[in-house]
Design goal:
about 170 residues, alpha+beta, five-stranded mixed sheet, about 45% strand, globular
């Protein structure tokens, strides 16, 4: 007979195994984050962004990507990090996000893109509890890669469904 602790460990192991795979890593300040590579459409250099009035503070605006207008989100602002001037390493990661009715193409502005890494299930731990006031639903897990920790993001949950719906009407 299995006790509750063993069953919880098995559920966690299965969840971490589901998170294993290839991740595109990028930096926001000193921290390294990872996005599932299958969600990434492309990486482009920073380009002129058209500001759209009355959008949330973390939406920089829209860009024209080969004839398609897509919204661009500043992850620094979305994560309430200190503002920083754009540099020649600042870029836009174009991703596909699951919306309610359809997938939404969106750009994410990051400080710099690092590399693609392969994260195995045994390298992933669940996000540590941060208290009831902190939403960590968008974190798939913490990847232990060498001596570093990579925060693995669920790009579909970085924005709420309501936020995705509102932003998708911009582009």
């Amino acid at each position: 007979m299995m006790d509750a602790g063993t069953k919880t460990d098995q559920v966690l192991s299965a969840a971490m195994a589901a998170c294993a795979g290839k991740y595109l890593t990028f930096k926001l300040g000193a921290e390294t984050y990872g996005l599932e590579i299958l969600k990434v459409q492309e990486i482009i250099g920073l380009m002129p962004v058209t500001q759209v009035p009355r959008t949330p503070h973390y939406v920089r605006g829209v860009i024209n990507l080969r004839g398609k207008v897509i919204p661009v989100v500043e992850l620094r602002k979305k994560f309430d990090l200190e503002p920083r001037e754009d540099t020649d390493r600042t870029c836009i990661i174009v991703v596909q996000i699951k919306g309610m009715e359809r997938d939404v193409t969106m750009g994410l502005i990051v400080d710099e893109v690092s590399e693609v890494i392969d994260v195995r299930a045994e390298q992933i731990e669940p996000a540590p509890p941060m208290g009831s006031q902190v939403d960590t639903e968008f974190i798939l897990g913490m990847g232990k890669v060498g001596d570093n920790v990579v925060i693995l993001l669920d790009v579909d949950k970085v924005l709420s469904l309501n936020e995705i719906r509102n932003i998708s009407t911009i582009g």
